[in-house]
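Q: Predict the assembly, please.
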Amino acid sequence: MSSQDHHGRGRTGPRIPRPRTLRLVAAGVGALALTAALATPLSPAPQQAAADDGKKVLTVAVAQSIDSLSPFLASRLVSTSILRLTYEFLNNYDAKDAHAVPGLATEWKPSADKLTWTYKIRSDATWSDGKKVTAEDAAWTFNKMMTDPNAATANGSFVGNFRKVTAPSPTELVIELDKPQATMTALDVPIVPKHVWEKVGDFSKFNNDKDFPVVGNGPYILTDYEPDSFVRLEANKEFWRGAPKFDELVFKYYKDGDAAVAALQKGEVSFVSNLTPAQADSLEGQENIEVNDAPGRRFLALAVNPGARAKDGERFGDGHESLLDQRVRQALFLAVDRETLIDKVYQGHAVEGEGYIPPRFSTYYWKPSADQKLAHDPAEAARLLDAAGYKKNGDGKRVGKDGKPITYRVLCHATEPNDKAIGQYLKEWWGDLGIGMDLQCLDNVSDPWLAGTYDLAFDGWSVNPDPDFVLSIHTCAALPATREDTGATDNFICDEKYDDLYDRQLAEYDPAKRAGLVKQAVSRLYDTGYMNVVAYPNAMEAYRTDQIASITTMPEDAGNIFGQDGYWSWWSAVPADSGGSSDGGGSAGVITGVAVGVVLLAGVGGFLAMRRRATAEDRE
Amino acid sequence: MTADAASAPADGTAGPAPAPAAAPTVRGPRARTWAGYLRYGAGKVGGAAVSLFAVLVTSFFLFRLIPGDPVKTMTGGRPVSAEQLAALRREFGLDLPLWQQFTDYCGKALTGDLGTSYQFRAPVTEKIADALPNTLLLTGTAFVLYTALGIVIGTRTAWRRGRLGDRLNTGLALTLYSLPSFWLGLLLIIVFSVGMGPVPGLFPTGGMESGGEEGFAHVLDVAHHLVLPVLTLVAVEYGQTLLVTRSALLDETGSDYLTTARAKGLRDDLVRRRHAVPNALLPTVTLIFVNLGRTVAGVILVETVFSWPGLGGLFYQALSVPDLPLVQGLFLFFASAVIIMNTVADLVYPLLDPRVGR
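A: Predicted assembly structure:
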C-alpha cells in the first residue's frame, strides 16, 4: 500500500481524467453480453426458422407449467390440451353439442350383451413419420395401460372395467368389458404409435420431451419445447380431417396475467385466457381485440360434510351433527343470495348456479322446477331451522343439540380470491339467521378435507362432455376402503337413491334414456342439499382479430376457446390477412431495443463520469 | 481436522519461502501468520460443514410440516383408485417410516442424488440444472451492475455528504429500494414493452427468448429480453449496496490517517480511493458475498412478472404441491450457496484486513 501512495504522490503534470466509471459500466454491458453468450449453448436454439419467413404463427399465452408431455403421465390442463392436438383419440366431441363424433374410429357398436364394443379404425390416418395408423396401435396403448401400472398414472381409470383389448385386423379394434359401460365413446385416451413407444423402458420416468419432432397423428406435430419458455407445434399437413390453416402454433409462457394482457395489447401473442373481470373489462372495446366471455365448464359449490366414513362402515371426522338434517342444509342454501354474488363477486361474469352440471352441456343440463328450487328466501330458511329444532337463544344465536351456539367451519382455498369474497357474504347472511361461521382459508385444504374435519367447504370441478366422472365421485363406491385409505369420493356423500340412478345411467346405451337418468341423479343430488351449486363462472378470454380472423368456440354458439374437449379451436383458427403471425419484435426490433439499452447504460455511465470529473476539478 | 490444519502451514509455506533452511528468522513471523490464517480458515470451513449438515436435516423436516398429502394433491381432480394412490406412495417412498425416509434422503444427497420430482417425473438435479443458467444469467448480470453502481455512488455520496448530490442519490436509492419489484417490473413492461405516449414499445413483454433464432441473433434476442428484468433488479437492489458502502465510508471520514494522507499532499480523489475506501470495504464485501450467494436462489417476483424460466419460479411451483424432493433439493441448494459464499467471504477478510483472523 505504501508504494502505491508513493507512486500517487510522485505523479505530476496535468491530470488526465480516467473514465473509470465508464469502463465499469462498459464492463457491466460486456458482462451482460458475455453472460448472454455463455447461456446460449445451455438453452439450445429452437430448430424452427424464425417467423419472418411468411409463416402464419398463432401464439397463445399460457401460465401453467407442463407436468409431462407423456400421454401416460400428463394430467394438467395445458399438457392434456397439447396432447389433444398431437395424438388423435378414438372419438371426438362435436363442437356444437358435444355428442360423440368420429376420431380414429369411424364407427362403433356394442354387442347385444353390452359387454363387447367393436370400433372400425380409419385407414386414411398416418403417423408423422409416414407409418400407417392401425388398430394395433390402439390395442397396444390400452393393453399397456392395463398391464403396466406406470402407464396407468394419467388415464388408468378409463381401462379399469376393461377385460380384454384386441385388434383382429388393422382396421378393427375390439374391447371386452367386465360390466356394461356407457362411456365407451368418451375414452379420452391419446392413442400412441406402438413402433415408437414399445421402445420406452420405464413409463414412470419417460416424459416424451427430448426427441423432436415427436411422432404423432393429430392436427399439429410437437416440434420443440423449452420448459416454462415455449412449446412449439407445426401444422400436420397430412392430418386426415384436413391441415390447420396456421403453419405454427406456439404456446408461450407468461407467468403473470397482467404481463400476458400487455403482450396481447402489443400483439406479441394472439390469444390470452383466464382473464380476471378487471382485465376483461379493460380489454373490452380496444381496437383489434375481441373479448370472449364464454359460459364456463366449471361450477362453484358449497359442499356439506355428511359425516366422513369409509366403506367398512367406520365413521370419522367431526362434521357438525346439525348438518345431517336435510332441513338445516337447505336452510343454509336458502339464505344465500346468488344474484348478489354473481353481481358483486363475479362482476356479472358468471351464471347463477342451480343443478350440478353447467348449462353449456345441454344434453345433460338439468334445473329445478319452481317448486323444487331453493330460491333466496331468508324467512323460509329461519322457519326451517326453527322446525328442525335449532332455535335462537337470548343472544339471537341458534343453539345446537349440545346446547352450544352453532358455528360452522367453512374450508376455503387461500389461492382463490372469490372463495374469500363469497365467504364474507355468507358470514353476514348466516349471521342474520343466528348462525356463526369460521372461514378457514388454507393453501392446501386436502388434509382437513380428507380427514372430514370441516363442516362446509368451497368445492369446484371442471365438467367433461360425458358427466360420468363428476357423478361417480358422489357414489358410495367412491368412499375410501378404510379410514386409512384415500377414496375417489369428493365429500363422502353416500346415498342409495343416487347410487341406483348412477348405476343405471352407466349401463344405459341409449343416449336419450341415459341423459334422462343423469338428470334424475342430478335432481336427487340437488334435493339432498349436500352439494349446493352457487355459480357457473364464465371463462374469460381475448384474442387479436388482426391475427385471428375466425376461430371455433365450443359449444359453437357461445363457448370457450382454450381447454376445449376437442381440438376445434386451434385446428379451425383462420389467420387474418394482415400477415397473421404475432409480432415477436423481429430482428429490427431486437437491434433497436439492444441499442436503446446500451445508450441508456452509456448515458448513466456518462453522467457518472461527468460527476466524477467535476469532483476532481472541484478539489484540485 | 485440527491435526491437518496444523500440519498444513509447513507444507503451504515451504514453496513460497525463498530459502527455507538458510533464513529461519525471516520465515518465522510469516509462517506464524500463515499458520494463523489456516487455523482461522479451518475453523470457518468446519463451521460451514456443520451449517451444511444442519441445512440437510432442516430441509428434510421443515417441508414435511407443510400441510397436505403430496400424492393426493398431485392426483387431485383425476379419478384415482386407492390402489393407485398406494402405488404412488410406494413409488415415492412415502409409505416408509420417517426415520428411514430421512436416512435414505441423507445417503442419496451425499452422493449427489436429490431424488425425483413428484410433479415433473424428472431428477431434481436435472430440473435445477435446467433452470440454473437462466437464473444466473438474470441475477448474475444484475448483481454485477447493482454492486458496481452501489459502490461507485455509495463512495461518492459519502465523500460529499450533505451536498445536493448526496441527498438526491440517497433519496432516489432509498425510494427505489423500497419499491415492490413486481410493481416496478409491471410499470416498466407497460411503458417500455407495450409503449405509452411517445415511448414506443421497445422490449419484449416477457420470457427469455422469442424462440426460432440461432447463433448471434439468439444472443441478441436473449439480451433484448434481459434488459427490463435486469433494470428492475438493479433499480431495487443497488440502494442496499449504496447505503452500506456509504455508511461504512462515513465512519472513516474523520479518521486521523486520512488527515495524515491529506497532509502528505495527496489529492482528495486519491485519499478516498487508496486510503478510505479499502478500509471501509469490509461490510460491503460481506454484503457482496451474501448477495452472490443469493443470486442462485433467483428472484421469484421478478421472474414471475417477466416470465423468466428460473429457479425462483421452480421453487414456488415445488412448494405449492408440495413436491417434497424438489423443494428439499432447491432449499439445500440455495442454503448451501449462501453458506459457501459466506465462508468464502470469511476467507477473504484476512486478505483485505490483516486484523481479522489474528
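Chain B touches chain A through 99 residues (CB under 8 Å). Confidence is low (pLDDT under 50) at residues 1-26 of chain B.
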